[in-house]
Amino acid sequence: MPEPTTTLLLVPLEDTVVFPTMDVTLPVDVGDEERVLLVPRHEGSFASVGTIARVAERVRLPGGLRGASLEGVARGIAGAAHADARGRLRVEVTEAHDEVPVDGRTRELERELRAVYDEILELRGDDGRVASFLRAITEPGALADASGYAPDLTFDDKVRLLETIDVTERLELALSLQRERLAELQVRRRIREDVESGAQKQQREYFLRRQLESIRKELGEDDGSVVDEYRAKIEEAGMPDAVREQAERELARYERIGDQSAESQTIRTYLDWLIAVPWSRRSEERLDPVHTREVLDADHAGLEDVKDRIVEYVAVRKLRRERGIDRDVAGEEERAATGRRTADSGAILTLIGPPGTGKTSIGESIARAMGREFVRMSLGGVRDEAEIRGHRRTYIGALPGRLVRALRDAGTMNPVILLDEVDKVGADWRGDPSAALLEVLDPAQNSTFRDHYLDVELDLSQVVFIATANTSETIPGPLLDRMEVIRFDGYTVAEKTAIARGYLWPRQRDRNGLREDEVEIADEVLELIVREYTREAGVRQLERELGTILRKTATKIAAGEAQAPVTIDVDAVREALGRQKVFQEAAIRTAVPGVATGLAVTGTGGDVLFVEATSMEGKDGLTLTGQLGDVMKESARIALSYVRGHAQELGIDRHAFEDREFHVHVPAGAIPKDGPSAGITMVTALASLLTGRPVRHTVGMTGEVTLQGRVLPIGGVKQKVLAAHAAGLTDVILPERNRQDLDDVPEDVREQMTFHPVMSIDEVLEVALEPVPVAHRG
Which residues are catalytic? Predict the structure, then answer.
């Protein structure tokens, strides 16, 4: 029965329980205390009952720590606690000694517990020492406390045993715990005996499952807990009704077949993917055109038309949202009533332009400006439709498509997903991914997109899709029809210089371990690098060249060969990058008759190409070289036919074609070329050859020609003009019907160049050819 209260030093025991009659040595300084209270503690929570222990001896532990050898005396009920003068926690304790009832129930429980102990020892293979120890115990309460020595009991079970003051109740609890141990040992023995005696397969599986269930139960991982865990996750996922019903059906099937079925792991993987989709999570969208423009201007220089279109896109979404036209407002009641999503009529922006012009990075800026998550999904080289729609679950190793994985990575249902390199999607016997993208990019259909693996409707209408491509020619027509194309035509020299100053130079300086005060460069030197070491629409090569200069500068500073600050001048550029790599060749190449300067658009942006023509003795004929495509070959034949048919008007001797063979070549023969826009360039080259009048070295030209000499419109005017400007040309001949396209050319470039819109080849030759014939050299 409880005795009067006394005050003892409290010694907490982390995840450890000490019973009365137990001896223990602890690394604790008890000072001059004679008795202490040992209280079990778990995650900061103390048990209500501890063990009063007598300090038998103060000892010195390894490492110089002070310790104490303690002997458990009795249970102690903890009361109020307070800190003493030394800051130690002291607690009021009521001692509770065992009081054995006189009824026969207690003795019966004692005998039964001893019998269970004996059976357990027999199964575990005791050498007699434990049995002797148990026989020496005469008190029923101490016999129950002996269960605390069992390593199979959990910490919670031992605390329950310690907190049970009544001896009879303690015996009942100890008997219950030991019976569970005995049952598990008996199952293990039966399994072992059945396996050793060659039991049938079904019997072995039964007992093995029982053993596994017992182990999983001890670990808290039984099938029931797994099912409960999945059920809780499904409830928290916020799935639509149809999706939740599908998940619950799969969970019920898993519960029926059990974890040992071969199909259980497939079901668990499927449920994991269903739960991984962020069904109810959405980013708080920020639709502020002013903020969007500020972000785009901070992240990118130039590209004014591109930025204007993106700001317009955000402004329209803002108005639709505010006026209740957008799906998020107008469709809420419909979704609640039908469980289906209405479609958003937002555009699918497609950024088309040469590499290195900032298409991917501007996608990131759009996401940041709108307050949405950003996910990049590379489609280059994708040839399997299952990459978009997912694999059906009947296949081994099946997985959802990239869109589901993108939503999982984003963690929201309304991210910005960048479909990178959409022009490089292929097709083979596994299907056509571009056909799957038709549904994804159609606002009227993507609210009910169905992934083959998940096999439930997935609402993609809240996703902002932005596609990128280098060229639109390889994008299938139906897919391109769903896109709103924004052209990235490249940067001017001034824009590249500004980008180098504001973005590339600081980034490369940091990457090479240099501080701002250690290296400096003038804008004139940056412009020199742009003009003489790069010829590209974007700025990737420019960044590489700047990186080379800064690496070499960092090497000199680290080696003590240079002192900061280092000024990068022209000599330093030449030393780091070598001789000039880009030359303005037009003057040299067109110095002789028969060479004309054309303008073209390639996968890397606008470019300057030279068309060379010559003639030799031979049968009438035309030889074409330079890896020309069919359309370009036809343009060459049209050019020769026109010059031959209008020889008198062009001042060409009518005998100049007799027994002569003509050869037209477009240099850079390793690069395939095609398209009709070189038509007037080929006519000019042949007319220059036959009249002996060289082409003006300041003139570049583009346009398709007909047999009647009409000049037809072409595409890519802005990219071609930028290429002409970068090549040092000052005059550009282009079709009259392309005059309006000049508005897209940056104003500073237009001011430095002269444009000649023409309708016929006569106007082309009047501008392009020098007036005075010169002798053809060799």
Answer: 677, 720
